[in-house]
Design brief:
The complex is a heterodimer.
Chain A: H1 6-25, E1 31-32, H2 33-43, H3 52-64, E2 68-73, E3 81-86, H4 88-112
Antiparallel strand pairs in A: 1-3, 2-3
Helix pairs in contact in A: 1-4
Chain B: H1 6-23, H2 28-40, H3 52-65, H4 67-96, E1 107-113, H5 126-135, E2 139-153, E3 159-166, H6 169-173, E4 180-181, E5 196-199, H7 201-207, E6 218-221, E7 224-231, E8 245-248, E9 267-272, H8 278-295, E10 305-310, H9 311-316, H10 320-351, H11 353-361, H12 366-402, H13 417-442, H14 447-452, H15 462-498, E11 508-513, H16 523-539, E12 543-549, E13 559-562, E14 564-565, E15 578-584, H17 588-592, E16 596-599, E17 613-617, H18 618-624, E18 634-636, E19 644-651, E20 666-670, E21 684-690, H19 698-708, E22 715-719, H20 720-727, H21 729-763, H22 765-773, H23 778-807, H24 823-849, H25 853-858
Parallel strand pairs in B: 3-8, 5-7, 15-20, 17-19
Antiparallel strand pairs in B: 1-9, 1-10, 2-3, 2-6, 2-9, 4-7, 5-8, 6-7, 11-21, 11-22, 12-21, 13-15, 14-18, 16-19, 17-20, 18-19
The chains are: A mainly alpha, B alpha+beta.
Chain lengths: 117, 860
C-alpha cells in the first residue's frame, strides 16, 4: 500500500466524508445549498459545519462528475433556488462510498478498540 | 458550467441566512454580523486572486467568456496603438535614432558667418578649412566635401551619377572602411595623384557586374581616366543615400590662395574630441572665425565668425514639426480609443455589479477588486498592443512608400526594439488609463444593497452615467480638433494645388545634361552641341518646342548671384544687390509657356558677338524699377566691367521651388553670352514640350543625344507635372495621414456616442414601454433619445472648437491660404461631425420606438 502522509490522509478523509454527506442528503429528495448546510449542521449537532466557501465548490465538483444534478426551480412568491438531486451514477457512487465508509469505520474501530456504536 | 451559478447561489444563501436569523428574532445588526461571520474564513474568493497568476488566469477566463467584448476592445486599441507605433517608428528612425555613422553624436557641421543677411550660415572655402583644421583645439578630425555629379562613360551606356569630392579624412571620421579595396589616404589628396575613385556598392553591381577584381581597374569619369581604389558597403549613405562615387579633394596652392578664400563651396564637418561639448566647440569656432575675420579684412568686409551644429540636427532639423504634429494626432486617436474602451468597460461594469458585490462579500478588499479589474484591462491593453504592433509592421512599409523623399533616412524606418518596448509600455499604460475609472467605479458598492436587490442587474448609477457622458463629450471634442486640423490641411492642399505656377506644366519632359569640361572645353563647343541638338529636336514631329535653362523650376536647383545696376553705384561696405540669376537658351520661355509681358525673349541671335541682353521677371522689374520701365536698363555682374546686359523683356513670375512660396525676383541671361572670361556652359535642364505623352519621349531624347555624342548621358529625366507633384509630396503625406487619423477619431467618437444612446435604450426599455403604453408617440421617444445624445455632441463640439482655436495655431506653418482659425473650415467640419453624431444617435434610438409596451412591461 502507498504511504500516505497524515495531512493528506486527513484531507482525503474529510473530502471523502463530505462527498458522502452531500450525496446522502440528496438521496431521497432534491435540496438546495442553504438547506444542505442547515441539515448538516443540525444533524451533526453543530459538529460539522460547511461554510459557503467550501460547500458550493464541492457541489459543483459533484455536479461536474455527474453524481448530482442542479436545477433552478422557481416557486411562487419565493426566490428561485438551485436544487440538487442524485443522479443514477450518483446512486452507484453513494452505495459504494457507504460500503467503503462502513468497512473503513469498522476497521478503525477494530484496531482502535472503540466499541461499536 | 456550474460555476456560473455561484454568485446567485451564494447571494441567495446569504440572504436565506439573514432572513432565517431575522425570522428567529435576531436584530438586523446581529443578522448582518452572522452573515459576515459566515464569510469570515471564506478563502476561496480570495484564493484565485492571491497572486498575479491567479488574476491573469481569471482575466483570461472572463475575456474568453465574452469574446465579442474582448474583440471589440482589442480592435479599438489595436487601431489606436498601431497608429502610434507606426508614427513612432518613423519619428524614431528619422529623428531620435543616432546617425548610423555617428553613434556617439560627436559629428558637427561647421558654418561660416559673413554677417550679411542670408549669409549667416555658409559653407567654407579651402583656405578656411585649412585654418580651421590647423588652429582649432576642439576637433580630433575634420573633413571637407562637396557634392558633385559626374558623367561615367566607357564600356557601358553613358550614365550620370551623383557623388562627392572629399578630403581623405572623411571615411575614418565616419568610422567606415571600404568593403573592397581601401578608402582614401593622404597621398590621394596631392594634386596630380588624385585620379582615383571609390564607388558605391550599387554602382559596382550595376556597372561592373560585381567584379571582385574591380579594384585597380580604370573608369572614365567626366572624360578622364581614374583608378578605382575601393568599393563601399551597400547602403553607405554619405553625403546622401544617392551618392555613388567619391573622389579625393586635392587642394592645390591656388585653391588655398587668398583670392580664393571667398569661394565658399565646401561643407565642413568635424568630430569633437571626447568630452568636448557642442557649445564649447561653438564658442571656440566663433572666436577662431573672428580671428580669421580680423586677419583677412579684404575678404571678410562685414566681419566673419563660425558656428557649429550637430550633424544629426543638420539632417533632420526641418522634418520635426510635421512629424510631431502627426505624433500628437495619433496620441489623440489613442486617447479617444481609450475613452471608448473605458465606456465599454463601464457599461459592462453595470452588468458585473453582482459579481463584484459577491467578491466584496467574500472578503476581497476594494483594492483587491481594483487590482483584478486592472489586470483585466492591462491584459486587454497588451493584447491590443500586440495586434497594434502587427498592424504597424504591416503598415510601416506603406507609410514609407507614401512618404515624401524630403524626409531623410526613410530607408532606416522600421519597427525595431525601441518601438516594441515603447509600444508595450504604451499598451500597459493604456490598460491602466482606460481601466482605472471603470475599476474604481465597479468596486464602489454597498454589498448588502446589491445582494438584496435580487438577481436583476441594477441600473447605471448616476455617477457612472456621468462619467460615461463625460467620456463621450471628450471623445467628440478631441475628434473635432483632429478633424479641424485635417480639414485645414485638406483646404490648404486644395489651395496649393490651385496655384498657377506661372508656366504650363503639362506635356513637358525635362532632363539634366552636363557636358564635361574635359571634352567641351570652350563655350563655343557647347554652343555647337546645343545648336545641333535643338535643330534635331525641332525637326522631330513629336516636339512642339524645346529650350534649356541651368535650373528648371521644381528641380531644387538654382542660385543667386550679386549684380550691379548701371548708374546705381554701391558704396564701399554696402552689400551689392543679390538675386536669382538663371542662364537660358533661346526658346526657353516659349517652351515653358511663360508669358512675356513686354519686350521679347531670347533668340538664336543672342550670342556672345551680339549685344548682351537680359530678361527679368515682373517681380524683379517692380523691385528695382518700381516707377520706371525696366526695359532698356542695363545690369552687370562685376563692379568694374563693360560687359553690360540690357533688359529686353519682362517675363511673368514663376514659382521656382514650390507652389506655396512667393515668387522671387529673377534675372535671366542668355546662356551663350558669357558673364566673364572662361565662362563655360553650366549643366542644363533640357525642356521639351511634346505633342503626345511627354514621358514616352525620353528614349527618343536619349537617342538624339547619343547620335550627337555617344558618351553623353542625361539624368533626372522627369516630366514637369511629376516635379510639381513631388514638390507637394510632403504636404500630401501630412494631409493623408492626418486625414486618416481624423477619420479614425470620428469613427471612434461615433461608436462612443452610439454606445451611450444604445445603452440608455436598453436601460430604459421599461420606461419607454410605459411611456408608449401611456400614449407617447414614437416620435416623442425618438426625439427624447436623440436629443439626449445630441446634447453630448453639442457639448463636445463646443469644447472641441475652443480647443481647436488654441491648438491649430501650432500648425499654422503647415497651412497655405487658410488661417488656422478659418471659419469656413470650422463650420464645415463641425457640420460633418454633427451629422455623424446625429446618425449615431438616431440608429439606436430608432430601435427604442419599436419597443412593444406589453413585452417591456412584462419583463418587469
Amino acid at each position: 500500500m502507498q504511504h500516505i502522509k497524515p495531512a493528506m490522509l486527513d484531507r482525503e478523509l474529510k473530502k471523502g466524508s463530505a462527498e458522502l454527506l452531500i450525496l446522502s442528503l440528496v438521496e431521497d429528495q432534491p435540496r438546495h445549498g442553504y438547506d444542505l448546510s442547515k441539515l448538516i449542521e443540525a444533524r451533526s449537532g453543530g459538529v460539522l459545519k460547511f461554510r459557503v466557501a467550501s460547500l458550493y465548490p464541492l457541489l459543483y465538483r459533484l455536479e461536474k462528475r455527474g453524481w448530482i444534478q442542479g436545477r433552478w426551480i422557481e416557486k411562487a412568491g419565493r426566490r428561485r433556488r438551485r436544487y440538487y438531486r442524485l443522479t443514477p451514477a450518483g446512486e452507484q457512487v453513494l452505495k459504494s462510498q457507504r460500503n467503503t465508509w462502513r468497512e473503513f469505520a469498522d476497521a478503525i474501530n477494530r484496531v482502535a478498540g472503540v466499541e461499536p456504536a | 458550467m456550474p460555476w456560473r451559478n455561484l454568485p446567485e447561489e451564494i447571494a441567495h444563501h446569504l440572504q436565506d441566512l439573514y432572513d432565517d436569523l431575522r425570522a428567529r428574532g435576531a436584530t438586523d445588526d446581529e443578522a448582518r454580523r452572522a452573515v459576515a461571520d459566515e464569510l469570515e474564513d471564506a478563502t476561496f474568493g480570495a484564493r484565485p486572486m492571491a497572486d498575479l497568476r491567479g488574476d491573469l488566469r481569471y482575466a483570461f477566463r472572463t475575456l474568453r467568456k465574452h469574446p465579442g467584448f474582448a474583440v471589440v476592445v482589442m480592435l479599438t486599441l489595436a487601431l489606436g496603438i498601431g497608429a502610434n507605433a507606426a508614427i513612432f517608428s518613423v519619428v524614431n528612425a528619422v529623428v531620435l535614432r543616432p546617425l548610423p555613422y555617428d553613434r556617439d553624436g560627436r559629428l558637427v557641421a561647421v558654418w561660416g558667418n559673413l554677417h550679411k543677411p542670408g549669409l549667416e550660415e555658409i559653407p567654407g572655402s579651402a583656405a578656411e578649412f585649412v585654418d580651421y583644421k590647423t588652429r582649432n583645439r576642439v576637433f580630433d578630425a575634420m573633413a571637407a566635401y562637396d557634392t558633385i555629379g559626374v558623367n561615367l562613360t566607357g564600356s557601358a551606356q553613358p550614365e550620370r551619377v551623383p557623388g562627392a569630392v572629399t578630403t581623405a579624412s572623411l571615411f575614418s571620421m565616419l568610422g567606415e572602411s571600404a568593403a573592397l579595396g581601401r578608402t582614401f589616404i593622404a597621398a590621394d589628396e596631392q594634386p596630380g595623384r588624385n585620379h582615383v575613385a571609390i564607388i558605391s556598392h550599387g554602382l559596382w553591381r550595376r556597372r561592373f557586374a560585381g567584379d571582385p577584381d574591380v579594384v585597380g581597374r580604370t573608369m572614365t569619369v567626366d572624360g578622364t581616366n581614374v583608378e578605382i581604389v575601393g568599393v563601399m558597403r551597400a547602403g553607405f549613405p554619405f553625403p546622401g543615400e544617392e551618392a555613388e562615387l567619391w573622389q579625393p579633394l586635392a587642394f592645390g596652392a591656388e585653391d588655398v590662395a587668398e583670392d580664393q578664400r571667398g569661394s565658399h563651396s565646401y561643407t565642413i564637418i568635424g568630430r569633437l574630441k571626447p568630452g568636448v561639448t557642442v557649445s564649447q566647440a561653438s564658442a571656440e569656432m566663433k572666436a577662431l572665425g573672428e580671428q580669421m575675420g580680423a586677419e583677412h579684412r579684404g575678404t571678410y568686409r562685414s566681419g566673419f565668425s563660425a558656428s557649429v551644429r550637430p550633424l544629426h540636427d543638420e539632417l533632420v532639423g526641418n522634418v520635426g514639426p510635421a512629424l510631431f504634429v502627426l505624433l500628437a494626432s495619433v496620441g489623440v486617436v489613442l486617447v479617444i480609443a481609450c475613452a471608448n474602451v473605458a465606456n465599454l468597460l463601464l457599461a459592462r461594469a453595470a452588468a458585473r455589479q453582482k459579481e463584484m458585490a459577491i467578491r466584496a462579500a467574500l472578503g476581497a478588499g476594494r483594492m483587491r477588486i481594483v487590482r483584478q479589474l486592472l489586470t483585466e484591462s492591462v491584459l486587454l491593453g497588451l493584447c491590443g498592443g500586440a495586434l497594434g504592433l502587427l498592424l504597424a509592421m504591416w503598415g510601416v512599409p506603406g507609410l514609407v512608400a507614401l512618404a515624401p523623399a524630403s524626409i531623410p533616412r526613410l530607408n532606416e524606418i522600421g519597427v525595431d526594439g525601441r518601438v516594441v518596448v515603447l509600444t508595450s509600455i504604451v499598451s500597459m499604460f493604456t490598460g491602466v488609463l482606460f481601466g482605472l475609472v471603470p475599476a474604481l467605479h465597479a468596486s464602489k458598492h454597498d454589498v448588502h444593497e446589491t445582494l438584496k436587490d435580487g438577481a436583476r442587474s441594477t441600473s447605471d448609477s448616476g455617477a457612472r452615467g456621468r462619467v460615461r457622458r463625460a467620456l463621450v463629450v471628450s471623445e467628440i471634442a478631441l475628434s473635432l480638433v483632429l478633424l479641424i486640423a485635417a480639414g485645414l490641411l485638406i483646404n490648404s492642399f486644395a489651395r496649393v494645388q490651385d496655384v498657377a505656377p506661372g508656366f504650363r506644366a503639362d506635356h513637358v519632359l525635362t532632363a539634366r545634361l552636363a557636358l564635361p569640361a574635359s571634352k567641351y572645353t570652350t563655350l563655343e563647343q557647347a554652343q555647337r552641341f546645343a545648336g545641333e541638338l535643338f535643330a534635331r529636336l525641332a525637326a522631330s514631329h513629336s516636339v512642339v518646342a524645346a529650350g534649356a535653362i541651368n535650373a528648371v523650376p521644381f528641380s531644387g536647383r538654382g542660385g543667386d548671384r550679386s549684380f550691379f545696376i548701371e548708374r546705381r553705384p554701391v558704396a564701399p561696405g554696402e552689400p551689392s544687390p543679390d538675386e536669382q540669376v538663371r542662364f537660358a537658351t533661346a526658346g526657353y520661355f516659349a517652351a515653358m509657356q511663360i508669358p512675356i509681358l513686354r519686350g521679347r525673349e531670347f533668340t538664336d541671335r543672342d550670342v556672345d558677338t551680339a549685344p548682351h541682353v537680359a530678361v527679368v521677371n515682373d517681380a524683379f522689374a517692380r523691385k528695382y524699377w518700381p516707377k520706371e520701365d525696366a526695359i532698356g536698363k542695363r545690369v552687370q555682374f562685376q563692379q568694374e566691367t563693360t560687359n553690360r546686359y540690357e533688359i529686353i523683356g519682362i517675363a511673368g513670375n514663376v514659382k521656382h521651388r514650390a507652389l506655396d512660396v512667393t515668387e522671387k525676383p529673377e534675372l535671366y541671361v542668355p546662356i551663350f553670352q558669357p558673364l566673364f572670361e572662361g565662362f563655360r556652359m553650366p549643366a542644363i535642364d533640357l525642356i521639351v514640350r511634346t505633342a503626345g505623352d511627354p514621358a514616352s519621349f525620353a528614349p527618343a531624347l536619349r537617342e538624339t543625344i547619343a547620335a550627337l555624342d555617344p558618351d553623353q548621358p542625361i539624368s533626372d529625366v522627369r516630366t514637369l507635372d511629376e516635379r510639381i507633384g513631388q514638390s507637394l509630396a510632403s504636404r500630401r503625406f501630412d494631409m493623408l495621414l492626418l486625414g486618416l487619423f481624423a477619420a479614425l477619431a470620428l469613427v471612434l467618437a461615433a461608436v462612443g456616442i452610439y454606445g451611450v444612446v444604445a445603452y440608455t435604450v436598453t436601460e430604459r426599455t421599461h420606461e419607454i414601454g410605459v411611456r408608449l403604453a401611456l400614449g407617447a408617440r414614437p416620435r416623442d421617444v425618438l426625439a427624447m433619445l436623440v436629443g439626449q445624445g445630441m446634447r453630448l455632441a453639442v457639448a463636445g463640439a463646443a469644447i472641441g472648437i475652443g480647443l481647436a482655436v488654441t491648438l491649430t495655431r501650432a500648425m499654422s506653418g503647415l497651412l497655405f491660404g487658410v488661417s488656422a482659425t478659418d471659419p469656413a473650415t470650422f463650420a464645415a467640419i463641425t457640420g460633418v461631425l454633427a451629422l455623424v453624431a446625429l446618425v449615431a444617435c438616431y440608429v439606436p434610438a430608432r430601435r427604442a420606438t419599436g419597443v412593444n409596451p406589453v413585452t417591456a412591461l412584462r419583463s418587469e
